[in-house]
Recover the amino acids of this structure.
């Protein structure tokens, strides 16, 4: 199940960006192939660890679950799902009208805002900040009746 979520999330994100189903499926495979393979191999190794035990029930369970995860991660998630998604095209994302009450939780992609003017150099920023600080200290000291030495 987790493999499927990883794969379909990447495919849908790319489809939302480009609108090209074939390229989105290829991108999803490229982006999640190593993750899915690694996670499946870890699970297969764990299950086959049970198969090396002494209890026949655990041996059968370990071998069967390990083989099932291996087949699911390689054949189903990396061959059948992408092939069917490529064949279905835009129909992958069809939502029946009676399910339109479901919330749309997709991330909205936006390009970063371009700056309209170049940033000021840090020396100008620092000088402006020091000027404002000295103005504030002069104002505070004049309120208290103190004179500041070195001001005109």
């Amino acid at each position: 199940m987790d493999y499927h979520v990883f794969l379909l999330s990447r495919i849908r994100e790319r489809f939302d960006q480009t609108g090209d189903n074939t390229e989105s499926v290829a991108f999803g495979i490229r982006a999640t192939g190593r993750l899915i393979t690694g996670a499946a191999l870890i699970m297969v190794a764990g299950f086959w660890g049970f198969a090396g035990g002494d209890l026949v029930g655990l041996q059968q369970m370990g071998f069967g679950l390990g083989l099932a995860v291996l087949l699911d991660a390689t054949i189903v998630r990396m061959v059948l799902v992408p092939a069917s998604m490529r064949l279905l095209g835009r129909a992958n994302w069809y939502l029946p009208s009676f399910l339109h009450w479901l919330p749309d939780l997709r991330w909205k992609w936006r390009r970063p805002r371009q700056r309209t003017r170049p940033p000021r150099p840090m020396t100008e920023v620092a000088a402006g900040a020091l000027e404002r600080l000295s103005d504030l200290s002069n104002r505070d000291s004049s309120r208290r009746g103190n004179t500041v030495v070195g001001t005109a």
Notes: The chain has a mean pLDDT of 83. Residues 2-92 form one domain.
